[in-house]
Design goal:
alpha/beta; eight-stranded parallel β-barrel; 50% helix; TIM Barrel; 305 residues; 12 helices; globular
């Protein structure tokens, strides 16, 4: 049953009709647990609350798979406005962006141009931008874009997904760039010829790439809600004398807030991924696909309404 739900929500995340309806009717059916509002003012309030509790944040203006350069330009402007707000309010927060929201399905050069506009503003504010990783079809071109940007900017990072077979080689390749990486298990529904098909293999790959990246001396954003993984990372870094300044834990807004606070209280850098905006549907569906307990929460929330 959980596999059926996972496939259903993963398919819905890419459904354009459902996405348009979601934009029209707003943050309904429990989405507000995972999405910090539909405008930057809402997002700022949530980030400030996290900062006040000793946690950093990364803001994501939601959007993906745009169909015109005008839409990509608008997404770029909203990313820049997000950086403006972070700077204006003195937030401990950086920016994360999806390449498809900046035109990747239209043209690679359009995306590069838009990313450079964003990175120029971030550099002016002494801030950092992470280029997200999306589904497998965008993996290679996203890494190519990252490498091109890294030649010009030192305030840019990207993401690698442990469930892909190729990731072990990508970790070694990106070591040449001293890459700041957000390391995740992966949230897209990929076929078994591309990605590890079961959780145990994904977990094993995930621990391996974290350890390799840290031993290479590079900065790691360990993006996991799994207490077992977190305990292993803490143990490993202590045993190998890896400074707390070389890594941070990262979690999604609305998931395991008590664990987030505990890590921050124990002196670890804790950064919370805070998405906002009207284009929330794809992101929300992937959160439901990832964790069956999220579906239970949404059903209870809907019944209450």
């Amino acid at each position: 049953m959980s596999k059926v739900l996972t496939n259903t929500f993963s398919s819905l995340s890419r459904n354009q009709i459902a996405n348009k309806l979601a934009k029209k009717y707003g943050l309904k059916f429990g989405a507000s647990r995972f999405v910090a509002g539909d405008n930057i003012s809402d997002a700022v309030k949530h980030v400030r609350a996290l900062n006040n509790n000793g946690m950093a944040a990364m803001l994501n203006y939601l959007g993906e798979f745009v169909t015109s350069e005008e839409e990509a330009d608008l997404a770029t402007e909203n990313c820049i406005r997000t950086l403006d707000a972070i700077n204006k309010y003195g937030l401990d927060c950086n920016l994360t962006v999806k390449p498809t929201s900046l035109g990747l399905d239209l043209d690679k050069e359009v995306t590069l141009t838009n990313l450079k506009k964003i990175l120029d503003v971030a550099k002016e504010y002494d801030n950092f931008v992470r280029v997200e990783m999306e589904d497998y079809s965008h993996c290679q071109v996203t890494l190519e874009i990252f490498k091109e940007l890294k030649a010009e900017y030192d305030n840019v990072g990207t993401v690698l997904q442990a469930y892909l077979y190729r990731t072990e080689k990508d970790i070694d390749d990106l070591n040449r760039y001293n890459a700041n990486l957000r390391l995740v298990k992966g949230a897209y529904n990929e076929p078994p010829n591309i990605a590890f098909p079961n959780k145990a293999e994904v977990d094993e790959s995930y621990e391996a790439i974290i350890k390799t990246h840290l031993l290479n001396g590079n900065y790691a954003g360990v993006a996991s809600h799994d207490p077992k993984i977190i305990r292993e990372v803490i143990k490993f870094t202590k045993e190998n004398n890896i400074s707390k300044g070389q890594f941070e834990f990262q979690m999604l807004y609305g998931i395991r807030p008590e664990l987030q606070r505990k890590l921050a209280e124990n002196g670890y850098k804790m950064r919370v991924y805070v998405p906002y905006g009207i284009d929330w549907f794809g992101y929300f569906m992937r959160r439901l696909a990832e964790r069956p307990e999220n579906v239970s929460f949404v059903l209870k929330n809907t019944i209450k309404k």
